[in-house]
Structures are given as C-alpha cells and as structure tokens.
From TrEMBL:
<keyword id="KW-0813">Transport</keyword>
<dbReference type="InterPro" id="IPR003439">
    <property type="entry name" value="ABC_transporter-like_ATP-bd"/>
</dbReference>
<dbReference type="InterPro" id="IPR003593">
    <property type="entry name" value="AAA+_ATPase"/>
</dbReference>
<feature type="region of interest" description="Disordered">
    <location>
        <begin position="252"/>
        <end position="277"/>
    </location>
</feature>
<dbReference type="GO" id="GO:0016887">
    <property type="term" value="F:ATP hydrolysis activity"/>
</dbReference>
<dbReference type="GO" id="GO:0005524">
    <property type="term" value="F:ATP binding"/>
</dbReference>
<keyword id="KW-0547">Nucleotide-binding</keyword>
<dbReference type="InterPro" id="IPR050166">
    <property type="entry name" value="ABC_transporter_ATP-bind"/>
</dbReference>
<dbReference type="InterPro" id="IPR017871">
    <property type="entry name" value="ABC_transporter-like_CS"/>
</dbReference>
<dbReference type="InterPro" id="IPR027417">
    <property type="entry name" value="P-loop_NTPase"/>
</dbReference>
<keyword id="KW-0067">ATP-binding</keyword>
<feature type="domain" description="ABC transporter">
    <location>
        <begin position="2"/>
        <end position="235"/>
    </location>
</feature>
<feature type="compositionally biased region" description="Low complexity">
    <location>
        <begin position="260"/>
        <end position="271"/>
    </location>
</feature>
<dbReference type="Pfam" id="PF00005">
    <property type="entry name" value="ABC_tran"/>
</dbReference>
<protein>
    <submittedName>
        <fullName>NitT/TauT family transport system ATP-binding protein</fullName>
    </submittedName>
</protein>
Amino acid sequence: MLDVRGIKKVYESKDRTVEAVRDLTFTLGQGELACLVGPSGCGKTTLLKIMSGLLEPTSGEVLMDGARVSGPPPGMAVVFQEYGRSLFPWMTVRENVELPLKQKKLPTERRRQLVEESLAAVGLAEAHAAYPWQLSGGMQQRVAIARAVAYEPHVLLMDEPFAAVDAQTRADLEDLIRDLWHKFKVTTLFVTHDIDEAVYLGQRVLILSNSPTVIRDDLTIDLPDERDQLTTRSSPRFAELRARVYEQIHRAKTASPDEPVAAGATPAPVTQDHSGA
Ligand SMILES: Nc1ncnc2c1ncn2[C@@H]1O[C@H](COP(=O)(O)OP(=O)(O)OP(=O)(O)O)[C@@H](O)[C@H]1O
C-alpha cells in the first residue's frame, strides 16, 4: 500500500550540509495504524514531507499503491501540528472541511453528505457555522481531522497533531483517532514524540534513530484492539511495551549513527511480521 524504500535526505546549502535521513525502508499495510517515534530533530517531519510529496528525497522512493510519489498524491491527506495555520480563519468550519472536496470536484450533494458525516464523526455537527477562531484549540484540531477524513483518503499522515493541546483534550483526540480508524480503516501513519501516545494508539511503532536517521526498531503492539485510557495504560503489557520504546529512544539519543542498530535492540517476542494489514 505505502512503500518507503531507501529514503535518504541531505539538506545542502552554501555553507552547511545536513544529512537528516540516511536510509529508511518500511512498508505500511492496507488499513494499518502505525506510529513513528524518534528523538527530537531525527527527521520525522522531513520523512513525512517526502512521503506526502512535498519534498524530494536525495535518493530512494516512496510508492503509494505501486505508483511513485512525486507530488502530493490524490489519495493522501495530511494533518499537521499547527491547526491554527491549516484552517482558513475567514471560512466557516463547514467551508474549511468542504474546500478540498470542491478541489476534488465532487458534486454538491456528495460534498454536503461528506461534510456532515465527518463533522458528526468528530463530534462537531453543531459547530458547522462557526469560524475556527471561535473554537478551542482541541476543537480546531478536530476540524482539521474532519477535513482529512471527509476527503476519504487511502492514506492519512499525521505530524504530531496533538502537540499543542492540553493533556485531557489530547487523550480525547487519541480515542477519536482510534474510533475513526476503526470506522474508516484508513492506512494511518501517526508521528509523535510521546512514547505513551505511540504505544496507546498504534498497532505498530517504528522507532527512529538519531539523525542521520535509520529505523532502530519496529515493534508490534500486541495490546487488545479495544483500548481505553484507564485500562490499557495501566496494563502490565503497556508498561513493558513503553519501556521497550523508551529504551530504544534512549539508546538512539546516545548511540553513534554508525552503530549497528539490530545489535542495540533488546530481544523480546514482540516484533512480528507486518506484511499484512
Ligand atoms: N530546510 C532545511 N534545511 C536544512 N536543514 C534542515 C531543513 N529542515 C530540517 N533540517 C534539519 O534536518 C534534521 C531533521 O529535521 P526534522 O524537522 O525533519 O526533524 P524532526 O524529527 O521532525 O524534529 P522535531 O522532533 O524537533 O520536530 C535537523 O537536523 C534539521 O535541522
């Protein structure tokens, strides 16, 4: 479904060369919900920009449904951290959600239906006539999520979408993402620097090394599919998994980029085959 193959990115300017991403290869299966974590500055945003066709890799390629990504692909939606900047303040909530559907040239009735469904799915049916600046931060981020969902993407990329909201809203939004994923089964890659969030949300967690970046670990999250903030987060398995991710990130921060990654990984019976959904 989504193949990331040997991605390398070197930023070059007149006086500086930064090798941000060295060699990233992974596949996201159809309908999979995977989280990507890594130390600050390890290239998460760089990778997402490359995956969404906004940035050219130095080498390697991204394939979506077998086709090489060379610009923003039609079946992909991206939700960024800065909801305040991604919504147009002069448009109502409804108009913001509808805009990409107009660009997709969908007929009026279908647009109306998708906008209503997606706003209802994020619990904002009543807010359709409001302007973004009349809403709280968490509500604005829900509008951004509704806009992405209404677009009916095959792939949804999310770049630290909850970094700027308070803890309670963040927990609600995490549950919203799991609900939407259950409902729409969109292939989702969720980037976060929050280890607990990654383990709580994902079926799988990809852990990146320090820059220049490679994949340090690829962990299957074998928690029950039905998750809730209290029971899941207090389960012994959750604690084991978060400890494993924490350890890998800690190693990633201190290891030299050339250290063999597999040698640093703790053997544990949690990494499984990801070829299926
Ligand atoms: N346009 C650019 N020009 C030069 N270097 C860049 C550019 N964008 C990013 N970098 C460098 O590439 C590396 C990775 O940056 P990136 O923003 O992708 O990391 P990140 O993991 O998303 O960071 P954070 O966790 O802090 O959000 C950093 O060293 C950064 O300074």
